[in-house]
What does this fold into?
Amino acid sequence: MKLFLKHNIYFISIYFILLLKIGYVLLNEGKVQIHKQINAFVGQPFFDIFFKYVTHIGDGAFSIALAIAIFFVNIKKAMYVLITYLFASLTSTIIKNYIYLDTCRPSFAFHFYVREPLKLVDGVEMHTFNSFPSGHSTAAFAVFISLMYMSKNYLVKFLCLLIACLAAYSRTYLSQHWLVDIYFGSIIGFLYATLFYFVFYNKTTNRSLDNGIIAYFKNRKTVNV
It folds into this structure.
């Protein structure tokens, strides 16, 4: 635990400070007003294109493809990323489809209830319901916080946290989610990444997993021969 905190405390602190600041905003302003302020920045060509593509970092296909790519470098790291993503995404899916299934997204709410136009980015297919929490934000934080924990390079750690935040923010910039959706989505992803880090990398399970993986591939070689 001490070693984990030594290498990650600065980045965890940055994330917690962001949570506190955004939480304060959420408690003191309505989500419609918050979204109006975010939507005011839409229409700038560079950011429209940037967030239109960076949002795909939260796609399931991206997360699985990344885990497969890592598999060819390090099997245990790939398992950690994949399992973290699967559990986080499953939790997000259950919440949005079975608990908060009728929560409408910004584009729908502004059109039918607020009755004010939103600035939208061309080429982005808008969704209407199942807004809470943001699945893309959950996936981005699950995957990139996992990568952050595994890296020993401080610059890489910072970039992983930054990418997760940008992918989450893209969901509000594109009016696919409210700020509260990405807020809790990020928490879900962060918690699963932290939980499974200790599952995969504490001394006891670390040794057991390594031995299990080695035994599995030895058995496969024996069968093939």
